Each structure stands twice: as structure tokens, then as C-alpha cells.
Amino acid sequence: MPMTEQATGAQHPQPRARNGGPSSASAVEHLTGAQSLIRSLEEVGADTVFGLPGGCILPAYDPLMDSTRVRHILVRHEQGAGHAATGYAQATGKVGVCMVTSGPGATNLVTPIADAAMDSVPMVAITGQVASSAIGTDAFQEADICGITMPITKHNFLVTRAEDIPHTIAEAFHIASTGRPGPVLVDIAKDALQSKTTFSWPPTMDLPGYRPVTKPHAKQIREAAKLITQAKRPVLYVGGGVMKAGATAELKVLAELTGAPVTTTLMALGSFPDSHPLHVGMPGMHGAVTAVTALQKADLIVALGARFDDRVTGKLDSFAPYAKIVHADIDPAEIGKNRAADVPIVGDAREVIADLVQAVQAEHTEGRKGDYAAWWKDLNRWRETYPVGYDLPEDGSLSPQQVIQRIGELAPEGTIFAAGVGQHQMWASHFIQYEQPATWLNSGGAGTMGYAVPAAMGAKAGMPERAVWAIDGDGCFQMTNQELTTCALNNIPIKVAIINNGALGMVRQWQTLFYNQRYSNTVLHSGADTDGIPAKGTRVPDFVKLSEAMGCYAIRCEDPADLDKAIAEANAINDRPVVIDFIVHEDAMVWPMVAAGTSNDEVMAARGVRPDFGDNEDD
Length: 619
Hints:
With 619 residues, this protein is α/β, with parallel strands linked by helices. Helix content is 34%, strand content 16%. The protein contains 23 helices and 20 strands. The protein has a six-stranded parallel beta sheet with strand order 3-2-4-5-7-6, sandwiched between helices. Strands 11-10-9-12-13-14 form a six-stranded parallel beta sheet, sandwiched between helices. A six-stranded parallel beta sheet has the order 16-15-17-18-20-19, with helices on both faces. The longest helix has 17 residues, at 349-365. The protein is globular and about 75 Å long.
């Protein structure tokens, strides 16, 4: 987002000393720009960098070799470095860092940068650039990465002077991690890395116009509290901003204080316990019937760190027609962007929710308390009538939903799950229970295939004591599986479940439903007969052999009788990455579903099953 969209209030993060504590101003040192870069990364507290060296960034890799405080993890593809930095950031709450060279190295970061921007992930991407005198000449491996990424970064910098490196790195980390988090790119010319300069810490940051509002306006908070106590059918619509703000404890207090139902978006799973009786599920195109319908029939939606994106709203002009809107967000540009807000609140979600708690308590003290008994009667009826579920295949083959559900049930407490994009992503969102924050990582806004394996790698690097499972599809897995080599060589023992249905599953589902079962270019099997039907039993690539070649322990599971044994075997191995190739039924579909471009009123609980809401249809 443009820096000018931010307003006032955040504090600068405290620079870190060499021992990890608060830093005092150090004596001036004479270093190269490259040495200054590594020292700056140490001082801002970066402990892990995912990267791949090349000509223009090479000067920085020499002093990096001497650093005892920054671990560099050599990826096999720059896209892997970006997604790993994102996974690290999502799992740890710290800024993720990736570093690559100019030209194609930098452009290979574009997808993960866009991904981080859509999901508001704090990331600093450092790229090498050709020498300042060659910029603009189409020099070898030159790309205008600042220009390319301007629409998908929160801010970016082109550094051509060595003396600018320390304050630029400090500013980049500050911008990435404050306000609405996001990716920041620092492009450094090769001659700036090679030049001599002086280094002292902390630097002076100069960011005029960047002062994010964190404290909400008291009048808006009071208005929101009044609407909550006056409403008959309120819903707390919780987005990823609550997770980013570390506001999950405050959210639980607010929900229990009000007694209002809570729906958590795909990016907010784990911010409120799935098992909590107030939780009515995930909304959206493939959301729970109760969550989708609760928003449609609400008379008040309290949106906290959510952005009313199209996957949640469906056809926008038919979304929540009876509801007043309280919209709280750290980014003022989001408020009113898709749905007009009756009460707009700009502020950090943690402070907003804490203030809302106090304001609602004041309403209760004055004898004004919401009565939601009739609302909960409806919600509970929908929840009991239309639970999220699945049928086992009649031919006795593995059900992908059952595979994912058992992985969740057998995983150690606190396991972090990273998912790719598609059917397996939706099944993982529904059939694994998320009770803790930062245990569910996925590409929500961009929907990036190939996210899961490198993101899981980054999460495990940042949280080595936690078990990390990547739930991936056979299509997604073939985009970034080379990072398993990185995991094997760097003692990052993630576990990968390949939900292998031999197809690009979600696209195939749409072809089944909307394209008369014409499966154009979605079959991933090798070989086909003259009718275009996949040749059964073909396995190209053979994921077990491929994974073993990359240093992993790999097994294949095809029989439901072997399911628990295979998962337990994977959970017991912690000295190397583990890959399980689950051969699952190809016709399994994701339900519920709201077809693209239609109203959420048209939600389907299952194929051919439209929920009946009885008398409430005309509320």
C-alpha cells in the first residue's frame, strides 16, 4: 500500500545490540557497503535469511559467511526463498528476510512478494542490482525490480550509495512490521556494496508521512458498542488482521462478553478456537453453511481486520442485505473499499478490541445488553442440519478429506500446517481443528500454487521445536518440491502430505460442475488412451522416488487400512524430511460451495443440496 495512506501513531522498533538486547550508539566503524548490510541485518534482529547468490549480490555473501548471528539458508529457486520468508514470518511473527541477485533472480521473487502483499505478511526482500552507472542501460542481468514491484510492495528502495544502507535497512524493517504489515524491497547497486563507508548504529530513520494510526477514536468505539448491544443478529467477522495484531486473547474476551457468533476467515483460522461454542466456522466460497448464512442474515457485522474480499462476499450487491457494518482496520484504505461502513474505525486490532471490551462493559453496566437467544436458535439449527462433512468413496479408495482429518488428529499439539492452493487447501481449512494462532499458513489472497513446501520450510526454520506439516496437492507439489533438497541439507525436517488425485483438482471440480466434464488440461497422469482418459497406474513423476532422490524419507499410501500407520510413521521421523504420497479418489469435491459470481444466498451444502432456511428466508 502507498505509504501516504498511513497516518500517525506507531513507535519505531528498538534497534538490537550485538548481544540481542537494546543497542546503544556504537563507535563509527569503517566497512564496505556489503559488511554494513550484514551488520545492519544483525542489528535489526534478523536471524535467518533465505537466499541464492549471484553476481550483483555476491559482495554481500562474503561477509555473510563470517556472521555468527545470521543463518543463511541456500534455496534451490528464488521463489522458494520468498515463500520461505513468508512462512517464517507467519509462524514466528517476525519479519521474514530473503536475498537474491539482480535480473531473473529478482524477478523470480515477484510472485512471493505479491503473495505477501495480498496477505499482509511482513517481509524484507533484498536484491542485488547492477552498478549504479549501468542502471538503465539494459546491462547484463538488469531488471527494474523497483518499478516491477511498486504495485505489490508496501514500499521499496533503490540504494546507490553505501552510506545509505544502514538507515534503509532499519526503515525497511520498520515499514514492513508496523501498521498493516507487508513486503518491502531493498534493491542495492553492486558498487554500493563494494564501496567503503562508515557504519554506526542505530541510524536515524526519516520517514515523513508514515505514521500508522494504532489508537482508535473513542467516539467510534462507543458507537460500535451501542450497535452491538442493540443488535438482534450480530456477527463478529474476524480476518487475518486480528492474527497480525496479536489480538487473539482480546478477541476471546470480546466474543464471550457479547455472546455473539464468531466467523473466522481463511487467513484468521486459529485466531479463535475452532472448538469454541461461539465459533460458527469459516465464511466464503467454500465456507461453512452456518458461517455464510450468519453473515447473510445478520443485522450487524463487526468486521475486525477483515477486508470484505470477493471470496467472502460473493456477489457484492447481495451480500448481507440487512446488516449495518462496523469496520475496524489498521489500513484506512480498506474501510469502505468494498462495503460502506456505518461505523468506520481506524486502528490496531488489539487496541480496537480492547477498547470495544471496555465500551461493551460500560453498556452492560448501564443495563443495555444484547439478547441473541432467537439468533442462536437459528444458528444452532443450521449448524446441526448442515455440518461440514464428506462421504467415503464407494470403491474403498482413500478419501482425501479423511487423510487430512487424520493428519490433524494424529499430529502433535501445536503442529503448524501449511497448505498449497486448491481442493486440499479447503479440506485442510475444514477438517483440521485450529485451536491456536499461527498454526495455519496458506496463500489466501493470491492463491499461489507452490506455496506449501517452501512456506513449511520457513516455518520450521523459525520454529524448529514445532512439528510442521505441508498439505499439498500433486499439482502444487510439482512447482516447488525442489526445496525438499534445501530441507534435507539444512536439517529442516518438515513433513509433506501429497494429496495425489492425478489432477489439478479444484480446476477439475469446476470443469465437472460448469464445463460438462470436459477435462481440458487438468489431468496430471502421464499417458492417456485415445479417449483422453488417464492411463491407470501411471506415476510420472514417481513422488516417492523423487523425494528419496532429494534426501527425504518417502512412502506411498493407497489403502485406508494403512492410513494411520503411515501418518504415525511420518510423525516418528524427525531427522530428515518425510513425504507421503497419498493416492486419493479423483472425484472428491469441496463442499459447501458458492459458485463464483453468485449470491451467498445460493450456497450449496453439497452437490444438488441447497439449504432450506424456512421462515428465516424473508427475515
